[in-house]
Request: fold
Amino acid sequence: MSRYIIRGGERLSGTVRISGAKNAVLPMLAAMLLTEKECVIRDTPRLRDVSVMIEILRKLGADVEERVDENTGSLSLMVNPLRIITHEVEENLTRAMRSSIFLMGSLLGRLGKVRVAYPGGCDIGPRPIDLHLRGLAALGADINEKFGYIHAEAKKLTGAEIHLDFPSVGATENIMMAAVLAEGTTVIRNAAKEPEIVDLQNFLNAMGANVKGAGMDIIRIEGTSGLGGCEHQVIPDRIETATFMIAGAITGGDIYLDNVIPEHVESVSAKLRESGVLVEEKTGKLHVACDRRPSAVDVKTLPYPGFPTDVQPQIMALMSVSEGTSVITETVFENRFKHADELRRMGANIKIEGRTAVVKGTRTLFGACVEATNLRSGAALVLGGLVAQGLTTVEGVEHIERGYEDFDQKLRSLGARIQKLTG
Ligand code: UD1
Reply:
């Protein structure tokens, strides 16, 4: 068990490089099973979730090699999935990471069958997979759910018209993966529009698939009979980008973020500007500076291009020390306010009513011992710690490491006083 010890009060300055996007890499690793040829993903973040997915691929029979670029230090993954020996995904690995559900689409496409353990609920509330299963069934998969396992089988996958009740990111990706090797045309309506979906489309097309429309409501996939290998550079992580933007703002700092796509964080930039933070694009970098106490702004999470639910905890940390009262509405997940209790321990004034949090900004937070119970909540507590008076201990660092590469080290490079203690 590890924890961060943070001494708050340092204004961050300098430049930090943003890593490749976790939520883009995970479906791509699953998609690599669709071919028998080697694929390479450049700029893979070194994260716990990525390690679990690599272990799953190896257990299925794929050959995975890691190569570090001598100049940039960035990691490339080379996956050769020629010899896939089983369609059964190990239960403890499935339960360790929800994204293993992506293997349903890719193994169905590759082997015509798959067996995975049912992913449980998680700390941000129930996370059903009905849209994934209905989509795969529409393509012809016969799905049985028994004793906590899902078994899906299809002699042949056939293109279909699928309308998603909600633009689910994971369901859109899973259906895209199954459809690329299906016979005929698949149309996904009310598809998710997140940048990671566009990156998956680009990756699949580089393998020889025919996918169009990602980033819009309707995605059209013409099935092909086989896919080849490819090399692909993953997009920068927009949630890590947003987290560092808020780190700059909350500490009254002046920082530059390298390896970013500013358009992907437009909704976050708009909210930060509205609250008085300077956010400007400078030759492939984002510059974030704040020389006064930010003003409270209201935030409502929505599917992309709306404000990301994955940045809601971090903006709540910022609103906790802003001037005025902010109303934060969470519309994507049912139970995503666990960080509010911990921020309160640091002196934040937050009231939760259903899916709405009313945050009355206070001048300062105070160091406390708090616990990260999930990835983004953990990031919010670190942000609180950066500005709190005195020492903050954030327990549960393993949750944060699921999604942030070298988080403490990157913050230290900007001048934060943060140490990781293990044991
Ligand atoms: C992905 C991201 C996660 C982010 C979320 C929303 C990855 C690996 N994870 O998760 O970081 O917080 O998008 O931007 O990319 N739903 C159903 N039935 C389903 C699927 C989803 O009801 O079959 C509901 C969920 O309960 C939730 C909403 O749809 O309320 C959004 O979920 P979804 O977009 O599927 O999120 P994930 O793909 O799980």
